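Hi R.,

Here's the chain you asked about this morning:
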Amino acid sequence: MNTDNLITDMHLDVLKEVGNIGAAHAATSLSQLLNRKIDMHVPKVELVSFDGMFDLAGGAETVVAGIFLRIEGDLSGSMFFVLPLDSANHFIRKLIGDETFDFASHDIPDMGISAMQELGNILSGSYLSALSDFTGLKIYPTVPSLSVDMVGAIVSFGLIEVSQHSDEVIVIDTQIREEGPDGTASVNGHFFLLPDPSSYAAIFRSLGVL
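And here is the predicted structure, written out as tokens:
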């Protein structure tokens, strides 16, 4: 099954709208955590090939901080949130108050790992909550797990099931802008949404755009 036959520009526009609602909720939570203004939005949602997904993250061999979780309930699938290491370090340093923290170190402190998992939980949870509100479907994310590795290694786990039925992934670009005493900083992350094949129809039927 090729998802290109199922997903239209209208579907992607709806997912972008859902993404921006989720981003607004996530920005509120992050602003409270970091005690500074955070703006987030979803500039683009697109359907890309597996190779295209790796290219967006800088190449399959690029080392990133990746959050992985499974989606359960009325929908099932896998979801990843991928951030460049520099961006991940920036946010975690602010969250834990340790300017020496570095995901590239051999011994990553447990506090930093927990903070990154919480960041992933806020971002993915806000998006999935918005999707649940829009569709009326019950969606339950599992506890997020953190990996610091090459993009190809992190995402390959989620591709095992999907690759049997499709060669495409829904990519939700996410732009995070932080305003602080040192000025404004922007980072770009990517959600990779890989619904199990049976869930595509459920999503868009619930949105009334099947």
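One quick note: The helical segments are 9-34, 50-56, 85-96, 110-135, 151-162, 197-207.

Cheers,
M.
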